[in-house]
Amino acid sequence: MKQLRLSRLAVLLAAIGFCAVPELTTIAGNTAYAQEAMRPEIGKVVQAAGELFKAKKYKDALAKIHETDSVSGKTVNENFTIERMRAAIASAAGDNDTVIRSYEAIISANKLPAGEQLKYVQGLASAYYKAGNYAKTTQWVKRYYTDGGSDPAMRPFLIQSMYMSGDYAGTMKEVRSDLAAEEKSGRAPSETSLQLYANAALKQNDKSTYVAAIEKLLTYYPKKDYWIDLLGRIQSKPGYSERLSLNLYRLKFALGQITRTNDFMEMSQLSLQAGYPAEAIKIIEQGYKAGALGAGTEAERHKRLRDLANKNLAESKASAATNETEANQSKDGTGLVNLGYGYVTAGQADKGLKMIEQGIAKGELKRADDAKLLQGIALIEAGKKANAIKVLKTVQGADGTADLARYWIIFANQSGK
After folding, report:
1. How many CB atoms lie within 10 A of CB 71?
2. Contacts by 187-193 with C-beta closer than 8 Å and gap 24+?
3. Which segment of 152-161, 349-358, 404-413 scores lowest on mean pLDDT?
4. What is the rounded distance in angstroms from the CA atom of residue 327 to the CA atom of residue 351?
5. 116 CB-contact burial (10 Å; exposed 0-12 / middle 13-18 / buried 19+)
6. pLDDT for 180-212, tens place per residue?
7. Separation CA 378–CA 358 (nearest Å)
8. Least confident of 24-33, 87-96, 199-208, 289-298
9. SS3 letters for the chain?
10. Contact present, 16 and 154 (Cβ < 8 Å)
11. How far apart are CA 97 and CA 101, in angstroms?
12. pLDDT tens-digit profile of 132-175?
């Protein structure tokens, strides 16, 4: 099973804006923790480090501030001031390990106002992510919320960290919670969250949840790759009926996924066998237009298929009245439904849709869900999207009909018909 490609970390971190560190001038002038005077041997080193920082000599500044580590007996205030300075310099120097150590010391001191403390908690979560320690990242993002943080941008960061740490069950739980809230409020879930949801399900070998996630991705972020993934799975679903092959082909055809010679040939042959020569001709002509038919060693075979389709269409027109009479006289409505769909594919939508409706109303159908699925497809082809969706929502078959109905609804909502 193929794993979805996730959004790049840089994009996510930029959106969250974690990496800001308080200015060095603010650190030096904050009376909340600078009321105690530093000893000269420490103060001189800190001041020198500050000058190097201002000159943007970050590595030199970091080496200078590290000199304070050899001074014994430092007070709480001295340590706190040093770590604030060290954190700012390390961040500018790109020393992530030092940033982590300093941030943890600053947070542990608990000397900052709540709002500023939260910024360091955010920064520490970001630093742990950069270090590849996703379990720690998750821990500190959760701490952020526990301490009263409310930045909504932290949610996707939490979920991605949980996923990267291997907590797939937790990832799915968090995403489900977000999905419920977002859909209730009418907001679209983020693509990254849905990708994580799908991939977490894949890691858990939860195929049904994976498919549900792909359906949601298609609903909100319609992409070719999602369609290919989704339609490629339906035939392997337990209980799927091969009699639905033509309806699956129809959806692929509508999506532009029929491109290979064999697919054009098989779909058109299935359509002819089902009694829809006008539809078969449309498929064949598209194959010729695409260059998939009419060329190569099989060109003559393609021509014979085209000739057969045209012959069947002529015969169908000649026997139309007889076929309609027989369908009307039949005890069940299956014949009317099939004839009606044939008229829709032949360009007589109004007549065909009325006949399908009459067939379904007649009842005694061998497969009622198949009939409603075909009616929904016919309504989409006739440009009646709202009615199509209404009909397709009533399809309940567990043999693949309900799945296809949902996929046709997604397509209808995207097609603009």
Report:
1. 13
2. 188/220, 189/216, 189/220, 190/156, 191/7, 191/217, 191/220, 191/221, 192/6, 192/7, 192/12, 192/156, 192/160, 193/155, 193/156, 193/159
3. 152-161
4. 14
5. middle
6. 998 889 898 889 889 999 999 999 999 999 999
7. 14
8. 24-33
9. CCCCCCCCHHHHHHHHCCCCCCCHHHHHHCCCCCCCCCCHHHHHHHHHHHHHHHCCCHHHHHHHHHHHHHCCCCCHHHHHHHHHHHHHHHHHHCCHHHHHHHHHHHHHHCCCCHHHHHHHHHHHHHHHHHCCCHHHHHHHHHHHHHCCCCCCCHHHHHHHHHHHCCCHHHHHHHHHHHHHHHHHHCCCCCHHHHHHHHHHHHHCCCHHHHHHHHHHHHHHCCCHHHHHHHHHHHCCCCCCCHHHHHHHHHHHHHCCCCCCHHHHHHHHHHHHHCCCHHHHHHHHHHHHHHCCCCCCCCHHHHHHHHHHHHHHHHHHHHCHHHHHHHHHHCCCCHHHHHHHHHHHHCCCHHHHHHHHHHHHHHCCCCCHHHHHHHHHHHHHHCCCHHHHHHHHCCCCCCCCHHHHHHHHHHHHHHHCC
10. yes
11. 7
12. 999 999 999 999 999 999 888 888 889 999 999 999 999 999 99
Tokens encoding 216: 């949601």
pLDDT in tens, 384-397: 999 999 999 999 99
**CA-closest candidate to residue 272, choices 240, 232, 315:** 315
Mean pLDDT across 19-47: 59
